[in-house]
């Protein structure tokens, strides 16, 4: 079943849409879609692939090998953020799961996150426990057992501090409120996604889900991790040396997120501190011989200032709808100082 991009929603009788955003990911879908279909009961779920203008054989593969999958064909590559926004225009299911194409799901993976959403209307979003697909005893970098952030915008997880990823030894098997849920496997109320404006298309990719989750929290919603549910994510962030493009997007988008969401009293001191922290990060890249990554940090700061006029209006609109002046809740100090100077390498050390 195929739909071209349109603003009209597709009327569905299924309570849950599992939406995989794809761009030239035929090989990944061939490997991981079978588990999604096998462990997602057809009576209550529909599996949807939103295709971001792929030029490989993705569509042909889906039509031939996975005919039960609904295809939303977008006219170009909108990136992660706007790609999902376009797909949501065609969804009317009560709940939507944003699922990366490189995620292997397990039996019962839907149960705990959906039960949390069903049990409490104040819970807007949830994520399962996420382990590394290529090293299954360890947490996965991007989401682990739920995300948090320090006051300066540095994200971390239960199970991952900076580049240190913990082995899963059931130490974070208690359900917990979190600040952000990873976009690799994010359960969300469809209506709430639309209510808060979805993912910020200006980010293109990287940290857009953290920005959206911050908006959810600042408007009074809760987010939870339900570790009874487990999925495995391949991901691309386990390498300590990131690509310059990824470094650029992470640094730029993090600054945009802070500017857009921080309460007025915290904005200037945090952004002033980030200037020095970014300078230290660029210097560290240089000392390690990663010249292109160092350049990417400075390019990210320039891009932030270029985009700042546009984000002044977004900031006003966002803060006007804020009911709780949420700032990163568990760490008012610096993750960088805690990690490098105090030796706190695990979430449980905090």
TrEMBL record:
InterPro entries: Glyco_trans_2-like (IPR001173), Nucleotide-diphossugar_trans (IPR029044). It comes from the Bacteria. Residues 18-141 form the Glycosyltransferase 2-like domain. The keyword Transferase applies. The keyword Protein biosynthesis does not apply. One of its GO terms (molecular function) is glycosyltransferase activity. Keywords: Glycosyltransferase, Transferase. Belongs to the glycosyltransferase 2 family. This is Glycosyltransferase 2-like domain-containing protein. It comes from Parabacteroides goldsteinii CL02T12C30.
């Amino acid at each position: 079943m195929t739909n071209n991009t349109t603003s009209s929603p597709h009327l569905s009788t299924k309570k849950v849409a599992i939406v995989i955003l794809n761009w030239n990911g035929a090989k990944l879908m061939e490997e991981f879609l079978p588990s999604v279909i096998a462990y997602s009961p057809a009576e209550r779920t529909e599996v949807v692939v939103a295709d971001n203008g792929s030029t490989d054989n993705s569509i042909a593969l889906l039509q031939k090998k996975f005919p039960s999958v609904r295809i939303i064909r977008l006219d170009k590559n909108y990136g992660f953020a706007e790609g999902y926004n376009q797909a949501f225009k065609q969804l009317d299911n009560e709940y939507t799961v944003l699922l990366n194409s490189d995620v292997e799901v397990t039996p019962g993976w839907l149960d705990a996150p959906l039960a949390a959403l069903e049990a409490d209307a104040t819970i807007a979003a949830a994520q399962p426990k996420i382990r590394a697909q290529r090293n299954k005893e360890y947490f996965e970098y991007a989401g682990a057992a739920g995300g948090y952030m320090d006051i300066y915008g540095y994200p971390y997880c239960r199970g991952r501090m900076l580049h240190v990823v913990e082995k899963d030894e059931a130490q974070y098997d208690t359900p917990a409120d979190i600040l952000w849920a990873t976009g690799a496997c994010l359960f969300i109320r469809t209506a709430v996604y639309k209510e808060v404006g979805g993912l910020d298309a200006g980010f293109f990719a990287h940290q857009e889900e953290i920005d959206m989750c911050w908006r959810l929290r600042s408007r009074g919603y809760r987010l939870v991790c339900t570790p009874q549910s487990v999925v495995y994510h391949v991901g691309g962030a386990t390498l300590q040396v990131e690509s310059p493009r990824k470094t650029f997007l992470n640094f730029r988008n993090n600054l945009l997120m802070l500017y857009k969401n921080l309460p007025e009293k915290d904005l200037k001191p945090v952004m002033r501190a980030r200037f020095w922290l970014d300078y230290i990060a660029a210097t560290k890249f240089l000392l390690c011989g990663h010249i292109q990554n160092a350049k990417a940090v400075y390019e990210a700061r320039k891009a932030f200032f270029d985009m700042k006029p546009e984000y002044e209006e977004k900031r006003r609109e966002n803060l006007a709808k804020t009911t709780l002046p949420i700032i990163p809740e568990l760490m008012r100090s610096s993750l960088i100082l805690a990690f490098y100077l105090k030796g706190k390498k695990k979430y449980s050390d905090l």
